[in-house]
TrEMBL record:
This is Cation-transporting ATPase. InterPro entries: ATPase_P-typ_cation-transptr_C, ATPase_P-typ_cation-transptr_N, ATPase_P-typ_cyto_dom_N, ATPase_P-typ_P_site, ATPase_P-typ_TM_dom_sf, ATPase_P-typ_transduc_dom_A_sf, ATPase_P-type_domA, HAD-like_sf. It is a multi-pass membrane protein. Its main location: membrane. Keywords: ATP-binding, Hydrolase, Membrane, Nucleotide-binding, Translocase, Transmembrane, Transmembrane helix. Its EC number is 3.6.3.-. Pfam families: Cation_ATPase_C, Cation_ATPase_N, E1-E2_ATPase, Hydrolase. It is found in: Membrane. It comes from Clostridium bornimense.
Length: 884
């Protein structure tokens, strides 16, 4: 392109009148330089490119057009979506060893010439499969909805207005707006670019920032007026007209599927599948044992009958032994937990994080916006020359014209209140910007105004003071004033100015400016209302709250004191972190709760140090530079409101309301979910013991195969009740009152602790003795009433099952208390009522004879109730002694 001529597309100016300033503000950096060149006297022609009809360009598609286009081009998925078929789901359930056993049992019945038993068995099998498939389908739906919620978003212009949609729904022709931190979701032409710089390393392997503009300036394969899916916006803003989506994009062609986040088994899922395996092995051994014993016992039967009968008894045992509920419990409880959290503004992106949440021991949070409200107001001003008007004007001129930073908004608001309107502030021409970076911690604007040139700067006092020529006395004054303001918990910003004669003399960067120090402004950003209480809750729960901020240490310390962070006079600054070795930092973090003047890069080291000390760390972040630390943390938390797409993608959790309280709630709920899984596992263990041992002991005692306590149909019948109990009722249990008074759990702790195992085994055995004892007594007392004996035992197990859930709700709280907490829960009541109805149906209708059961007399029923209550409720007495 010839020097001196520049083509600027009309689209730049679609939003307003074309003044010199807007032209400047909306230009690509290269063009900006050219404009500066014009102002510096170099002649340059500006041609407006009129072939881009601006209004049509900026309005974008209509919603109905987008819909039609989506029908034609499909969804914007880099990896084509796999459809899970219903049949496959059923087949998956059928693959479980449990169902193989069930089918074998049913087949044997048919072989035995007892088709009626076989059919009943099959009906039960279908019912159990039905429950499982419905559960799986529900969890799948939940997980999918969650994924949708945390899916990448993009802002588009449709029907002429900006709206946010799932990136998946982009169609060719859409206008999308990209800005710092966005991961570009589709390929398209740049039709507007301000300072737009994109990292294309995911495609090209070169990690340099590529400046983008509307006009092509080379013939490379990777065009500079085009942007590509999968790349990352480092700086600036742009409007893109989407050309290609999904697999059509350059990124899609490569087939590098980042979105293909395979659901890996969570640590708990791995643990429980080991447990299931162990149980299965034991079942296999016992299976053989029972086959042999039954075979020996049935001396007077024919050979064929002996074989069949012994296999049948053994199958009953094997079915009773395999805790096939474990995997179901986990997926249901974890996914439902995540779903409940989503309703409370906390989006879990990765299921295993739900488990980890409960173990969090250190919570590293940003100060501004998370602990504080990020609503600033100017509280105090101190000027060297006592000229507040001049000070305020320079302070205002150092802000962005379209301020979005709450601090700058507060400054402008202050100026306007004192009759220095925006029109006055920004009446000149902005000819250069020194941009704010986390490292620089200051910024400046160069204005041409009333014939003169003024550099207006603001930033952290240390940094601004370094650019001023101050005598000792003044330095001391400024420092003491700054300290006084900071001690009040205010954020202190220094303002400086420089007057320049000629445009050639404008320094290249801010560090080269020689500033006149004007004064200090102090801003208040009050802590969020509930933060104090939340931090107190955290300390009670053994969770350390660590504050991370770019602000100065004294301000941070004052706020920390305000909200009750302990050790608030022990502060480490970013500069100190730079001088520390990894080991030294590891020592330091043991008792430091405030990190001030840090840049995002420091966060990575802080997380690492905590982790190496054995802590489980949750850390918040929002910027592009926070992503590595978020990945490194055990729980990376992205801010949903101000967080960048990159931070969201790196995070385990997205906080939709950026609120500290939500983090604490999430950790608490993580503990509840983990507790409930533990309770469910303990329950499954306990309830399987009476079933398994009854199946084992009956053959050992030489009880004939027709007189067994549990026939295969009965085992399936009980499974029908156990499954929903643990996955529905236990999943819904509210948190125990003391949940935030315990220390975080040891991350290496196994889900089935020895305590839990002992408790479950004892509970199971007591129930076994009660049920089997009654059955056996009835059986030997009167041989003909095997149906009654069996009915007694099965009713005891079914009623005890309901009680067991209530009792095991807590190791401390009494059962009636947990019951009251859920008294309005429809689901819990449905399970209770369904169990009652089931007992009535299987005992008192014609079905009872099909199931080889018999009606019980009122006297027997009362006995059943008494035995059930005493075989379970004894644990309440244990609680009583524990509590004392
Ligand atoms: P925090 O971690 O509290 O959000 P920041 O990184 O935003 O802190 O800011 C760190 C410091 O940089 C502030 O204390 C202030 O001195 C300076 N600073 C922040 N924003 C601006 C701004 N818009 N203009 C000038 N200085 C700023
Ligand atoms: Mg900030």
């Amino acid at each position: 392109m010839p020097v001196g001529q520049y083509i600027v597309p009309r689209a730049f100016f679609a939003y307003g009148t074309i003044t010199e300033r807007t032209l400047f503000m909306h230009c690509h950096r290269a063009i900006k330089q050219k404009f500066l060149d014009i102002r510096l006297g170099i002649k340059m022609e500006v041609t407006f490119m009129t072939n881009l009809n601006n209004s049509a360009e900026i309005v974008g598609l209509t919603n109905s057009e987008a819909k039609l286009l989506q029908e034609r081009y499909g969804k914007n998925n880099i990896v084509p979506e796999k459809k899970e078929s219903f049949i496959r789901k059923v087949l998956e359930v059928l693959k479980e060893p449990m169902f193989l056993l069930l089918l074998v049992a049913a087949t044997i019945y048919f072989i035995l010439g007892e088709p009626r038993d076989g059919i009943i068995m099959l009906i039960f099998v279908v019912a159990v499969i039905g429950i499982d498939v419905v559960q799986e389908w529900k969890t799948d739906k939940t997980l999918k909805a969650l994924r949708n919620l945390s899916a990448p978003h993009i802002t588009v212009i449709r029907d002429g207005i900006e709206s946010t949609i799932n990136s998946e729904d982009l169609v060719p022709g859409d206008l999308m707006i990209i800005s710092e931190g966005v991961k570009v979701p589709a390929d398209g032409f740049i039709i507007k670019a301000n300072d737009l710089c994109i990292d294309e390393s995911s495609l090209t392997g070169e990690s340099i920032c590529i400046w983008k503009s509307v006009i092509a300036n080379n013939n490379n394969y990777w065009k500079n007026n085009y942007c590509y899916a999968g790349t990352l916006v480092i700086q600036g803003r742009g409007i893109i007209k989407v050309e290609k989506i999904g697999v059509e994009t350059e990124y899609g062609k490569i087939g590098k599927n980042v979105y293909d986040a395979k659901e890996e088994a969570t640590p708990l899922q791995k643990q429980t599948s080991t447990l299931v395996k162990i149980c299965a092995y034991i079942a296999a051994i016992l299976f053989l044992l029972v086959v042999m014993i039954t075979y020996v016992n049935l001396m007077d039967y024919s050979f064929k009958d002996r074989i069949i009968e012994s296999i049948l008894s053994a199958i009953t045992l094997a079915m009773a032994m395999i805790p096939e509920e474990f995997p179901v419990i986990l997926t249901v409880v974890l996914s439902m937990g995540a779903w409940r959290l989503a309703k409370k503004n906390s989006l879990v992106r990765k299921l295993p994080s739900v488990e980890t949440l409960g173990a969090v021991s250190v919570l590293c949070v940003d100060k501004t916006g998370t602990i504080t409200m990020n609503k600033m107001t100017v509280k105090d001003i101190w000027t060297i020359k006592n000229d507040i008007k001049d000070f305020s004007t320079i302070m205002g001129m150092a802000c962005e014209v379209e301020a979005y930073d709450p601090m700058e908004q507060a400054i402008i608001e202050y100026c306007e209140k004192n009759d220095i309107t925006k029109d006055i502030l920004f009446s000149g021409t902005l000819i250069k910007e020194y941009s704010f970076t986390n490292k620089r911690k200051m910024m400046g604007h160069v204005w041409k105004k009333d014939g003169g040139i003024i550099v207006a700067t603001k930033g952290s006092p240390e940094k601004i003071m370094a650019l001023c020529d101050l005598d000792k006395e003044l330095k001391k004054d400024i420092s003491s004033k700054m300290k006084e303001m900071s001690l009040r918990g205010l954020r202190v910003i220094a303002v400086g100015k420089m007057v320049i004669e000629k445009e050639e003399e404008i320094p290249r960067n801010l560090e080269q400016c020689k500033l006149e120090f004007l004064g200090l402004v102090a801003l208040q950003d009050p802590p969020r209302e509930t933060v104090k209480e939340d931090i107190a809750n955290c300390s009670r729960a053994g969770i350390r709250v660590v504050m991370i901020t770019g602000d100065n240490g004294i301000t941070a310390s004052a706020i920390a004191k305000d909200v009750g962070i302990i050790g608030n006079d022990n502060i480490i600054t970013g500069d100190i972190i730079d001088t520390l070795s990894d080991e030294e930092l590891r020592e330091k973090v043991k008792n430091t709760n405030i990190f001030s003047r840090v840049v995002p890069e420091h966060k990575m080291r802080i997380v690492k140090a905590f982790k190496e000390n054995g802590e489980i760390v949750a850390m918040t972040g929002d910027g592009v530079n926070d992503a590595p630390a978020l990945k490194k943390a055990d729980i990376g938390i992205a801010m949903g409101k101000r967080g960048s797409e990159v931070a969201r993608e790196a995070a385990d959790l997205i906080l939709l309301d950026d609120n500290f309280s939500t983090i604490v709630y999430t950790v608490k709920d993580g503990r509840r979910i983990y507790d409930n899984i533990k309770k469910a596992i303990g329950y499954v263990f306990a309830i399987h013991i009476p079933i398994a041992f009854s199946s084992l002991l009956a053959p050992l005692l030489g009880i004939g195969s027709k007189e067994l306590l549990l026939l295969p149909i009965h085992v399936v019948l009980l499974e029908l009740i156990i499954d929903p109990t643990c996955s529905i009722v236990l999943e819904r249990q509210p948190a125990e009152d003391s949940i935030m008074e315990k220390k975080p759990r040891n991350p290496n702790e196994k889900i089935l602790t020895s305590n839990l195992l002992i408790k479950s085994v004892i509970q199971g055995f007591v129930l076994f003795i009660a049920a089997f004892g009654i059955y056996y007594i009835y059986l030997i007392r009167n041989q003909s009433s095997v149906e009654v004996a069996r009915s007694m035992a099965i009713s005891i197990i079914m009623i005890s099952n309901l009680l067991l859930v209530q009792v095991n709700n807590s190791n401390k709280e009494y059962a009636y208390k947990s019951f009251i907490k859920l008294r309005k829960d429809k689901v819990m009541w449905s399970v209770i009522i369904a169990t009652m109805v089931a007992i009535v149906v299987i005992l008192y209708t014609p079905i009872s004879s099909l199931l080889k059961l018999a009606p019980l007399t009122i006297g027997n029923m009362i006995l059943v109730l008494l035995i059930s209550v005493s075989s379970i409720m004894w644990y309440e007495i244990v609680k009583f002694f524990k509590n004392r």
